[in-house]
Amino acid sequence: RTPPSKSHLAYEIPDSSFPRGFLASGVHCGIKKLPTLHDLGLIVSTTERNSAAACFTRNVFKAAPVLVSQEVLRDTGGRAAAVVVNSGCANAVTGKKGMEDALDMARTVDALRDVRTGASDSQEAASTPASQTLVLSTGVIGQPLPMTNVLNGIALAHANLGSTFLSWQGAARAFMTTDTFYKLRARTFVLAGRKCRIVGIDKGAGMIHPSMGPPAQPHA
Amino acid sequence: TLLGLIATDAAVSPAALQAALTYAVDRSFNSISVDGDMSTNDTILAFANGASGMERELSLAPEDREVYIQFRDELTAFATEMAKLVVRDGEGATKFVTVSVEGAGTFQDAHIIASAISTSSLVKTALYGEDANWGRILAAVGAAPVSTPPDPQKVSVSFIPADGSEELRLLVAGEPEKVDEVRAKEILKAVDLEIRVVLGQGEESAKYYTCDLSHDYVTINGDYRS
Asked: By three-state DSSP, how is residue A96 classified?
């Protein structure tokens, strides 16, 4: 039996529904074979009041981006402000090189954000502060990332950052692996008398039976 | 792999955001299954940047409790909507199935039983074949590693149609019903379906979201690396 069409589950969302102070983009950088498919996405906050949190897989074989993201959250005290995502390669079970690659992705985004905000001139930048970028990867396990493509892709994605539906849609497409539609939703709510907005992106579509928990507390 | 990102322009402290996200994930993304396998990369991120203009960051302090609960519940509802999308697009999925376990002694037991039903290959293939095979559901319930095993004489199972029409009772307090197979087929033909299991042990309940297991799942995963 042919699976039912699911295309109606992906639809346009008005620009005004997306949260203020975030920029997003998605590009093709050459991890996936087909050039029409996005495989690298970037979402950054443009404010100074950033909070971040995460729940990570409880699988013992945590992929490099999971370990790096846990480290970033710990080192920043939950003040991360950006996320870079790639699809097509999970950067999992890739050893030390995988860790270096994931950290390289985070540091590249940091550097581009510093150029944008002028933070590279500050004393903090000179003393190599904690990365503020979280990393997500999905796709094939056990293969190294094509880092030249990835780093070029990050620069391209950064240059294309925007706040419109198309920007968010591009980012959502960059999450996809065997997904048949991009998964993007937004809504508004009132909190403490203020109108707030929330956006969500996610992806499946196989190896799905998550058991995720908060990052472990650092040892005293 | 499951990856997700939720970003809001509300002002929320890192500790409050983490507490709300952990609560939300336990009731949404940790309650879905497509194929029973856990990835090395599963991650859900949350960001809050305060751009909405809230005067100060929402915290876990007692004076913020009411607003925090409101935010937490908003986040949980949104996360559940996002989690359901993943199940609807499970590899090869043709059905979206809600598994409700009620009348358990604890939330954990209800969650474990719902997970057992949601990951049973035989339940999932029966759903694909539109076969009202409630025996497989019961077998999964009975094999679930719970703290207090269900009493077979108290368990009831029904199918709840998505169109709001009357539920189809398959087993009531351990006794099989005379099932109208035509009606069962009708319910199972729909894309959306709910399986309701009542244990008759207590007041706790849990929901899980799953899909059927089809030929396409094997096709997609037979040569994923190439």
From this structure: helix
Spatial separation of the C-alpha atoms in residues A125 and A113, rounded to whole Å: 12
- Nearest Cα residue in chain B from A5: B94
* Confidence category of residue A5, pLDDT binned at 50, 70, 90: confident
Phi then psi for A147, rounded to 5 degrees? -65, -30
Active site residue B1: yes
CB contact under 8 A, A22 and B12: no
pLDDT in tens, B96-130: 999 999 999 999 999 999 999 999 999 999 999 99
Total Cβ atoms within 10 A of residue B160: 18
pLDDT tens digits for range B194-218? 999 999 999 999 999 999 999 999 9
Selected residues 130-189 of chain B with any CB under 8 Å from a CB in chain A: none
> Chain A: nearest CA to B118, how far in angstroms?
10
Residue B213 forms contact with A (CB below 8 Å): no
What is the rounded CA–CA span in Å between residue B66 and residue A192? 10
Q: Name the region of A154 (left: φ>0; alpha: ψ -120 to 50; beta: rest).
A: alpha
What is the value of ipTM here, to two decimals? 0.94
- All residues of chain B having their beta carbon less than 8 Å from the beta carbon of residue A99 are none
Give the distance from CA B101 to its chain's centroid. 10
Chain B residue with CA closest to A188: the answer is B8
pLDDT of A220 reads 39
Indicate the residue type of A118: G
pLDDT tens track for A19-37: 999 999 999 999 999 999 9
